[in-house]
Amino acid sequence: KDYNNCFPKDFLWGGALAANQAEGAYLEDGKQLSSADMVTGGTKDKPRMFAPRIVKGVYYPSHTAIDFYHHHKEDIALFGEMGFKMLRISINWARIFPNGDDLEPNEKGLQFYDEIFAECQKYGIEPMVTLCHYEIPWNLVKKYKGFYSKKTIEFFVRYAKTCFNRYKDKVKYWLTFNEINCATIAEGGYNGLGLLQKKDLLNDELIPLADLTDNAQERFEALHNEFVASALAVSAGHKIKADFLIGCMINRITWYPLTPNPDDILACQTKNRIFNDFAGDVMVRGSYPTYIFSYFEDNNIDYSFITKKDQQILADGKVDMYTFSYYMSNCISTDPEVEHVGGNITGGARNPYLKLSEWGWHIDPQGLRYTLNLITDRYPQVPIMVVENGYGGIDKVEPDDSIHDLYRIEYLKKHIIEMQKAIVQGVPLIGYTSWGPIDIVSVGTGEMYKRYGYIYVKRNDDGTGDFSRKKKDSFYWYKKVIASNGQEL
Ligand code: BG6
To answer: Domains in the chain, ordered, with CATH?
Structure first.
């Protein structure tokens, strides 16, 4: 097969960030706390902790992050130098509506993103905006239990409309909720949904995030409210500007059965349906898929929250594109004895054919092609974008300030080769924004030590570092990849 020139001419090469992992300035210019500001730093072996208020003397990485708030001009210039065609950022809801339920937006917050889009425009970079990337205003968590309340739908739609109206001539690509499907598992309930809760938790008592109480009934109800909020935003967005492209964003962990044992095959099918397919089916097709109802029944979830009115809203607010993150595949086994490994939101059984990253994630470039093929078969009606993919590793700064991150180049190169093959096989892939083009705080462990960037940020987990930026070897490599439209890898 000839893979020359297989990327479309206007392919959207770039990178992706999230507000709470990059901006810092957590209480500046009118912003109030968001749910992400309540979670401490951790490591691979030390969990991130939570208390229902900020505990003095404790390190909260989002409060400073990499100070993108004050370095964005410099950073976007570096993205421009690499030749980015697209930059995916998220807007921090608590900058625009600091308490979530305010009636009027915070002008200073709106201005910050005006500046970002103006910088992007300078370098010919198309912005893509996620409205809600794993955080909601903390006040909404406290007062309304996040998306468990129908009121939060109303607040989200007000926020979405405000952003659409303000930025309609600057932003065309929008995503409503980051990795919305993570809410299908207990570990994913706290972040975007705002279900940070545990009865009797004292104000200063820090507990591991994983120890928060999970209530599947509330979690699926809150997820339903997110679907409704997203669909209402999609419909409103199309009224504001007909050519907006608004997408779903799904965390794809490609699951393989560990063995041909039919028990493993069926367990894997269920896992793929609930985790990978369910949310995309609702958002692309506009209705709940049949298989989810038996899952609800098996798990004693009363789904009377799916009203006729909501069904109509979902049908009217279908997304225009399918976007997803891909870092790894995992295996499913029904044998309790098999070895397990980690993952960004959930781990799985060890695949003996694959290597692991330093954080114990399977490295599986072919899994990306497999996933792209699956998505195309399932949703042939919409374009697809990979909006997160990357290698979180430990970088060493040499005495001459160079950083030879060949492992990162290797990882990205192999994934891009599989994208080429997928495109040749007919996948309508329109863009690729790799994760963390500049080092940012890790969401899973809350540390800076795990780095994804083409650009190094001098900031350490003990709070030291002057936030200066340095180009890694991968910076020059990615620049070449973009300039050659994916030919020179
Ligand atoms: C994705 C999230 O799941 O994984 C990002 O959307 C996150 O916010 C990324 O940073 C990588 O995970 P981690 O834990 O290495 O930061």
So the answer is: 12-483 (3.20.20.80)
